[in-house]
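Entry type: protein chain
Record version: 2
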Amino acid sequence: LDSIARSVIYLNQGKQFSLLEKELVTEIFRRAQKDCKQLQPRQIAGLIWMGAKLGVRDKQLIGSLAHAACEKFQFMQPQEVANAAWGLARLKYRNERVFKVLSDTVTSRDLSNFSEQALANIAWSYGALRLTGHAALLQHIGSESAKRLNFMKAQEVANITWALGKLGVKQHTFLSALDNHLTSELLAKPEFSVQAMSNITWAMATLEARGYDSMLQCIGSQTASMITTLTPQQLSTLSWAFAKLGQKQYKYFNAMANMKDSQLNSFGAQNIANTTWALATLEMYENQQLYSRLAKIAEQKVKEILERPQHVANILWAFAKLGYSPEILFDRVAE
């Protein structure tokens, strides 16, 4: 049954499942639920992974598999542990006991046998479920990952860094290695997406991890060269993160000032608030072109801005700090 289910998923990668195939896999899960305690560790991990791939929403079934896994994590191979963790996270199954046992299991092991993908998936799983209290696990994964950055894919690097930021774990060994690893040449490779760079920068800012200037300079320069491909969310996240870390990234902010109207006009209230706050926090008085353009956008979207008091406060404070007074905006807020 395990082999049949895996074959169905393998043959349908990127395709819609037929009704017959869905019925087949559903029946396999039903039978598995009846004999959860009899399943082998590999089968439990495989079923959880398949459940995530298929988007199974049967809470009772997933709960049965998760508790069965809890009893057998210690007997699972590294990839099986990672598959179970990733599957449960994708299914949004958040159970402190299950993930405590999983955390203790991984923390007690030599991680040299875990693949780079396995390390990244486990870290991502805890971050995605916001499972705090597992700093030892993240420290352990970070130490091992620091040795293998040259072998990691961009997404794996980004996922581990993002998880550290999400869970508030400063892993200095990993961050120092990352600072040396992320060169301009590496970031220019197609596999290093803007989203990966945005996630890494966000994590550094969330951790208030200062002193990693080499990496941030490279990210600032690379994103400046790709400015036309960035979404409003990515632009405002990077701006906020650079400001949080005290990084005056002139190339990046100058590139933003020269964006086309169509790209800047797509900014929402939060994007405007984050970006103006960043400019004021960094005291970038010289970039009047950018904040004057942002003021015009804010005037057009004042109704949306007024829906969130914090956006109003941040935007008005930022313009006042920059010594810039967009009268229409201030008048509308006063009214």
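Comment: The two ends are 68 Å apart (CA to CA).
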